[in-house]
Specification:
- It comes from Flavivirga eckloniae.
- One of its GO terms (molecular function) is phosphoric diester hydrolase activity.
- This is Glycerophosphodiester phosphodiesterase.
- One of its GO terms (biological process) is lipid metabolic process.
- By secondary structure, the chain is α/β, with parallel strands linked by helices.
- The chain has a single domain, classed as Alpha-Beta Barrel (TIM Barrel), CATH 3.20.20.
- The protein is built from ten helices and nine strands.
- Strands 1, 2, 3, 4, 5, 6, 7, 8 and 9 form a nine-stranded mixed β-sheet that branches.
- Helix 7 links the parallel strand 6 and strand 7.
- Helix 2 runs parallel beside helix 4 and helix 5 crosses helix 6.
- The N terminus is likely disordered.
Length: 275
């Protein structure tokens, strides 16, 4: 397919490479870089002591983590281990790599922990100075002050880490929460912003609620068709869908000429682009 050769597609490793190694871990990010991704997609929360922690949930998830003694976390304790109420040192005591993830049987298992954003940026840049970061701030109104800081503080903490580690030009920030996106533009007008659109949302409707135009539109992949992609790109938006995993769906997104693809299996996308 000539389109694959002619057009650059930003290969984004979702939570590192969740299909292959435990999500949002140093090991997964290193593996993704070794595979050849251009961008590491990751999620952040905040600890009690103000450390930006790389984690999809603002709590220790019983789906893929064990407690500090290596035991299963009971359903009754779901969401009990709130990262915002725990120091970073205590968060690191939980094993988030040994337990078999029910949705990712190919994941290689290993004892590992939730790292800090600073650690991820530093190690990743040492491994590949050109690597880029797509950082999602996991925020919801009902989390404010309970599981996460208020949006203004959350955004400030993340920007401080990005700037301190000289990663501004390699980073974009993304969120489903429009309050966070407005706060990002207020605090850092020149940083690249991605609007995340969930599967039950409308791209146009959500865009219309923003006070500015983000550089990237990042919708659930099934929301996209040729007309939508062409129209958005004609208006200078980059289109980077999430989370595309099967070869069939990866090929569909390539055929739509999207600008990037977020995938749990960057190895599959890389192979398709080589063929």
């Amino acid at each position: 397919m000539n389109c694959k050769e002619e057009k650059f597609i930003d290969i984004q490793g979702h939570r590192g490479c969740r299909g292959l190694l435990p999500e949002n871990t140093i090991e997964a990010f290193k593996k993704a870089i070794d595979l050849g991704v251009h961008t590491l997609e990751l999620d952040v929360a905040v600890s009690k002591d103000g450390i930006v922690v790389v984690s999809h949930e603002p709590y220790i998830s019983r789906t893929y983590c064990l407690d500090t003694d290596g035991n299963e976390i009971l359903e009754a304790f779901d969401k009990k281990y709130n990262l915002y109420q725990m120091t970073f040192d205590s968060i690191k005591q939980f094993d988030c790599g040994t337990k078999l993830h029910p949705r990712f049987p190919e994941q290689k298992k290993m004892k590992t922990y939730k790292p800090s954003l600073e650690e991820v940026i530093r190690i990743s840049k040492n491994k590949n100075p050109n690597i880029k970061f797509n950082i999602e701030l996991k925020s919801r109104p009902e989390y404010d002050g309970i599981y996460t800081p208020e949006p203004n503080e959350f955004v400030k903490l993340v920007l401080d880490v990005v700037n301190k580690n000289n990663a501004f030009n390699e980073t974009n920030l993304q969120s489903f929460d429009l309050r966070v996106l407005e706060e990002i533009k207020e605090q850092s007008p020149k940083i690249t912003v991605a609007l995340l659109v969930d599967e039950d949302e409308s791209i146009q409707s959500k865009m219309s609620k923003m006070s500015y135009a983000p550089e990237i539109i990042s919708p659930y992949y099934k929301l996209l068709d040729a007309k939508t992609v062409n129209t958005l790109q004609a208006n200078n938006f980059l289109i980077i869908p999430w989370t595309v995993n099967t070869n069939e769906d990866l090929l569909k997104m390539i055929d739509l000429n999207v600008n990037g693809i977020i995938t749990d299996y960057p190895n599959r996308l890389i192979q398709i682009l080589k063929d």
